[in-house]
Amino acid sequence: MTTSTRTEIIGILGGMGPAATADFYAKLVATTPGTSDQDHLRTVIWSDPTIPDRTEALLGDGPDPTPWLLDGSRVLREAGATVIAIPCNTAHAFVPRIADHIGLPIVHMIGEVARHLTTLSPRIRTAGLLATTGTVRAGLYQEWLDRFGIRLVLPDAGNQDHEVMTAIHAVKAGTYDDTTTALLTRAARRLTEQGAQAVVAGCTEIPLGLPADAVDVPLVDPALVLAQALVRRATAENTAA
């Protein structure tokens, strides 16, 4: 890529949580081809950790984060962003409420993951999902994977609460360790026992606590998939220019 004609400016709507936002930006940088500072993408980051918990909102236990998401999107637009990326899976449940009000396109992380799964070989017919209870209840991955004919398997309610959510909270609290990895590894193994040919790390905190080599099938990192989609978009925009 060259920098002389590039106009795309990535707006990252983050803070959900801060560590996941920092991790996503690092992946965006690592994914961008180039040999100098000037080869990288112009980026604006709005990291607002005061955005109410998305899972609590979806379960009826907390305030609706939509106003915060709208405000953050407007901050990014006013700062010059030309496209929005949201490195939080659960926040995508609220994308329909903001998409028509911010005047910028949103690269849909979950849609990109569904398309990515169709590119894996051998063909993925069944995928497992490790995600927040809010993401699971909202049916975000179920809806998108259905469009591509991919069956989705999930942890049972007990394992969702005691393994997956416990691990996610540990990462958010900055207290994750080998115990956290063990919880997520067990949860992933149960999904492969149900026939999952790939496991989606469907909460941006999960890759921080679950190394890819801890799972014996491909571990799909939605933040990385989103970063790759943004680079492709910027490359195409630059080529067209």
Automatic annotation (TrEMBL):
Transmembrane segments: none annotated. Pfam families: Asp_Glu_race. GO terms for molecular function: amino-acid racemase activity. It comes from the Bacteria. The keyword Repressor does not apply. Keywords: Isomerase. NCBIfam families: asp_race (TIGR00035). Belongs to the aspartate/glutamate racemases family. This is Aspartate racemase. It comes from Streptomyces resistomycificus.
